[in-house]
Every structure is written in C-alpha cells, then in structure tokens.
Amino acid sequence: MNKYDHKISQKNVIKQLDETVINKIAAGEVVERPASAVKELIENSIDAGCSDITIEVADGGKTLIRVIDDGLGMSDIDLPIALRRHATSKLPNDNLLNINSFGFRGEALPSLGAVGRLRIISHNDGNGAHEINVNGGKISDIKPAARTLGTTIELRDLFYATPARLKFLRSTKSELKAITDTVKGLSISTPNVAFTLIDKTGGKSRKILQVQKEKDVSLASVKNRLSRVLGQDFSKNSISIDVTREDVNLTGYVCLPTYARASNAMQYFFVNSRQVRDKQLIGALRAAYSDFMPRDRFPAAAIYINCRPDFVDVNVHPGKSEVRFRDPQGIRSLIVTGIRQVIAIEGHRSSSTLSTAALGAMREQTHQMPSANNEQVTKNSQNMDYNGNKRFFTRDVEPAFQETWKPSARDFQTKDEHANFIEEFESFPLGAPIAQFGENYIISQNEDGIVIIDQHAAHERLVYEKLKEQAKDNKIEVQALLVPEILEFSEPEILVLMEYKDNLSRYGLKINQFGINSIAVQEIPAILNSENIKKLIFD
C-alpha cells in the first residue's frame, strides 16, 4: 500500500485558503524559475511605455533580480493595489479576446512577493517617488523614496519562502543562460526599446547584453536588432518576409537553407509582439523548410505575426507561451507558403563550397560505363573539376550522358562483360564517382545503378566518423594554430561557449575569451584542418 495515500478529513472538508497560500500556489504557475520572473517584470515595463530597460541579476537570479525602467510609473495609491491578486490596469473591460498588452491577469507582483523579498520604487509624473516592500507575502507601509520617472523592482532571495522550490532550480550558469535567452527574445520583440542585461554575481558587474533603442518597429529596425542580438551571420544569411492574407500580416526574417542550425534554439515567434513558443508555429516553420533542409537540421528565424486581438486567444497557458488562433490552418498555410515563396525567389543566394575531401574519399580509379551505342567510355575521377567550374558535368568527353541512354540496374548486372567493374563496386556501397553536378552532388555508379550523393553531407559524415573513433580511444589529435583565430559572437553566445569551454577542450577545441564579443581559437582537432571553425562552434 502507498504510504502517501490521500485521505480527506470528514470534518471541515472545504475551507477558504489564506491569501498568502493562494499567492504561493499561483507563483508555482507564474514563476517557474528566475527567468520567468524576469519575463514578467520586463513585460510590465514594456506595458508601462518605457524606452529603456536595465536588468541586473546575481547568482542566476536566485539572489537578485532588479529591473529598472523609464516608464509611466505608479502613484502611492496604485502601489498597494498592484500587490493584490487580479488587480490590473490593462483590462479596460471584461473582453479577454481584446487584449493589447503583455500582462492582464494581475498575478505577477503578488506571486513574486509571496515567494521572495520584493521591493518596488516608483515615480509617476507629478506625484514623486514612493517605496513599498513585500517579504513572503507580508506588505509593508508605503514610504517616500528617491528616483527619476519610472519604476525599479527588486526581487531578492527568490523562493526563500518556499525552500522546496529551490531544489528544482538548475546551476547558476544554466539559470543565467535562461535569463539571457528570455531577454534576447523580449528585445527582439520590441526593437524600439533599449535593453541592458548585467550580471552582478560575486560583487562584480559584467554586461551580458546591451542593445540600443531602434527608431521604430519597421523591418529595417528589426534587422538591426536581430544583427545585434543574434549576430551578423544571421543577418547576412537571412531573407526578409512580408506577406498579408486577409487580416493577418506575417513579417520577419528567415534563414537561407544553407544556414541550417544544429538545434531550434534560434527560432523566435511573436504574435502581436508577444513572444510565444507554440508547437503549431514551430511545426509550420519546419514544414516550410522540409524540402530544403535535412531532418536533423533546423532553420533560424524571427517571425512576427500581427493580427486583430480577437483573432487569437493568448489566455490558454499559465506562462502565456502558447496561443490559440481562430484559424490555425490558415496561419500554418500563411507561414509555409510565405517562406517557400521567398526561398524560391532568394534561393540563389545559397552558397556552398566544394568538399574535395568527400570526393577524395572515393578511390581514384578508371571506370567504364556503357554509352548510347554500347561503346565503353573511359572516365577517371581525377578528371573532375576541383576549381569550381560551373559546367553541369566536369569532364570533356562526349556522350556518356545522352538522353538516349538511361542507366538501369540491368546495365550493370552483365557480369560476364563487367566482372572487374562489378567487383570494384562491391567494395564501395556508394560506388565510384563518375561526375559532379552543380558543385553540390557527386554522381557515382554501383552495381545497382546511379547513386547521387550530397557531397557536403558525405564529407561531414566522414569527418564525424573519424573524430568519433579518435574520441572513443581518447586520442584526438589536435593542431595548434600558429596565429589564434579570433571569432566574433554575441555576448549571450560567448556566455554559453565559456560554460562549455572544458567540454570543447576534451574534443580538441581549445578556446579562450578575447574581449567582450570575441573568442580566440588556439587549437582545433587536426582532422578538421582548415574547416569553417565558426560554423563548427555554432553547431
């Protein structure tokens, strides 16, 4: 029998919970981790019409979260009301399908005050500044304070009133990364607001992210903000999208198919400026790239969906990270067709580099294949053009590929005539190369017919298998760079790299921070030679 069997007393079965207990329960949904608190506070600042937000955190937000803005501020009358559950200035009526603000439930501040030590200093026009404190749900008296127009909200010792919740928090670095990701998303959603994120762990002050205010929310301003937050690489390898269907407008930037990522971390979705992480939208983006990208790669994108407030229900998730559209299939269709159209137009920008290693891994032999008149045409894999010649087939011999000849398995199964030919192919499941097509594909021939190989994927697999063998034996050969390669990343990316610095070193990639936005690569796995190191680190 389960010793934790649930039992209900026969007396006084139902009773009203205390307000403090109610707020602690609500905090379990609203404030899952420090990043959740940061999100709620920043959204309050944006709703207050601010143009500049500074976020200060310590120990991954566990001991300190401070959000400073230059918004409208609150009066001494509003301060205690703001700490009551379901008290808000953002719902003019009871229509929950006409929401034009980030917040509307009135749960964030009382929930934070119930599980931490909350301090609010606010100054609205003409009424001076005032301060109020909440410790574990206990509200202090209001007193005068000093600050300029706007609001400062300071949260210390998050979850001190609910110690059990502390056990579920992750490491300081992980929580700081989550906060950084949250601030990045919110900064992308509102380019007309300046953001500064500062880590004050250990009494030091380190800027993690700083982006200046853009003049408006146009596509040009969005691109500037994306460049600052996600890096210049995304900006250079992305395509703008701006399509409208009925009352729904889809704008933003999506990556070229060649800018595939190893995860979906660089996917941002905004519905009426609200960042969401909706499975339906993620699936639509995936479907849009299904014909252009391998299954294990992910597109990068910042997609903004603007529609009438009554077209979408944002009140379907405690964290407001999911939404429900009135016409979900219409939204999916708009995303898929819109992205495919811009890729079809701009796809010529996709760039690739010939992977000679993939070709070189195939044995250089002289092969014979049947021509249109059943004569034997000699083909040597060395005849392939490694210098980027843009001819369809990089060889000077005539007619092995005439329309009148169509390869079939039967052509290669005449063992009496091609015994040596077949024997050679048996040792190479993918056959031996006979031509190169469009600088992207190797056309080879084996016993069963023609094989078309993505040469870049083939090369990556070859390198991966060799590196895996070396790692298995703990014998990864490294190559020290004569001159360290300096690579630029965004500040949040630098933070992640430094967190996994030791792990990278075990796999032959030695890096050190070089300034605020750069790292110095000192050693790389020898097998990678002169590969694109930045792309490797990104993946």
Brief digest:
This protein has 539 residues and is of the alpha+beta class.
Main sheet characteristics: 9 strands, mixed
Number of helices: 16
How many E strands?
24
Low-confidence stretches: 351-359, 362-415
Average pLDDT confidence is 79
| Helix content range | 25-40%
What would the CATH topology of the largest domain be? Heat Shock Protein 90
Based on secondary structure, the structural category is alpha+beta
Distance between the termini: 49 Å
**Beta content:** 25-35%
Overall number of domains:
4
The CATH superfamily name of the largest domain is Histidine kinase-like ATPase, C-terminal domain
Instruction: Please write the CATH class name of the largest domain.
Output: Alpha Beta
| CATH architecture designation of the largest domain | 2-Layer Sandwich
Please tell me about this protein's structure.
The chain has helices at 19-30, 34-47, 78-82, 108-115, 163-166, 172-189, 219-230, 232-236, 279-288, 328-346, 356-360, 415-426, 455-472, 491-499, 501-506, 533-538, and strands at residues 52-58, 64-69, 117-124, 128-135, 138-139, 143-145, 150-156, 194-199, 206-211, 238-245, 248-255, 267-271, 274-276, 301-306, 312-313, 324-325, 366-370, 376-380, 432-437, 441-446, 449-454, 478-488, 510-513, 518-525. The protein is of the alpha+beta class. The chain has four domains: 19-211, Heat Shock Protein 90 (2-Layer Sandwich), CATH 3.30.565; 219-349, Ribosomal Protein S5, domain 2 (2-Layer Sandwich), CATH 3.30.230.10; 356-457, no CATH class; 476-538, MutL, C-terminal domain, regulatory subdomain (Ribosomal Protein S8, Chain: A, domain 1). The strands form six sheets. Strands 1, 2, 3, 4, 5, 6, 7, 8 and 9 form a nine-stranded mixed β-sheet that branches. It has a five-stranded mixed β-sheet with strand order 10-11-14-12-13, with helices on both faces. 32% of the residues are buried.
